[in-house]
Automatic annotation (TrEMBL):
It holds the Pfam family GFA. Keywords: Lyase, Metal-binding, Zinc. This is GFA family protein. The keyword Mitochondrion does not apply.
Length: 159
């Protein structure tokens, strides 16, 4: 049985698949990864040692340094890759099931934001706990691509 991991951007214009065991799963705190992901740190899964392919569309790229380019969906902006001469890494949150690829190491500690270590101490709420302040949540319709491959997206009736 071949192990397969799939994923893609939020709008579904770009989809990928990894056949085989993916490489290391990590988070990077460096300032360039913070900016590229628009986040406190970048969760990345290396594709090294596995077969990686784009299965729908292709990312657009920003050359973020002389050695690294970053792929993202041109339609919805989802950050998708970190690519250097030693291989391609995929944004962990873009996988259809990120829970199966937990990070095992942190990089770029020089850029680490001090509060990251205490995020789990913050008050915590479910989305539907906020219905009073954000009543639109009650009839929210998601246009996000589902967490599995699709024959066609968006569905025909919506086009
Ligand atoms: Zn997209
Ligand atoms: Zn980084």
């Amino acid at each position: 049985m071949t192990l397969t991991h799939s994923g893609g951007c939020q709008c579904g214009a770009v989809r990928f698949r990894i056949d085989g065991e993916p490489g290391q799963s990590s988070i990077c705190h460096c300032r360039m990864c913070q900016k590229a992901l628009g986040a406190y740190y970048a969760p990345l899964v290396s594709t090294r040692g596995a077969a990686f392919a784009w299965t729908r569309g292709n990312p657009k790229y920003f050359q973020s340094s002389n050695h690294v380019r970053r792929g993202f969906c041109e339609s919805c902006g989802t950050p998708l890759t970190y690519e250097a001469s030693d291989g391609v890494a995929i944004s962990a949150g873009a996988f259809d099931d990120p829970s199966g690829l937990p990070p095992v190491i942190q990089y770029g500690l020089e850029g680490k934001l001090a509060f990251v270590d205490s995020l789990s101490d913050l008050p915590a709420r479910h989305t539907m706990d906020d219905l009073d302040e954000a009543p639109f949540l009650a009839d929210l319709v998601s246009y996000q691509h589902p967490d599995h491959d699709t024959e066609q997206w968006p569905p025909k009736e919506k086009q």
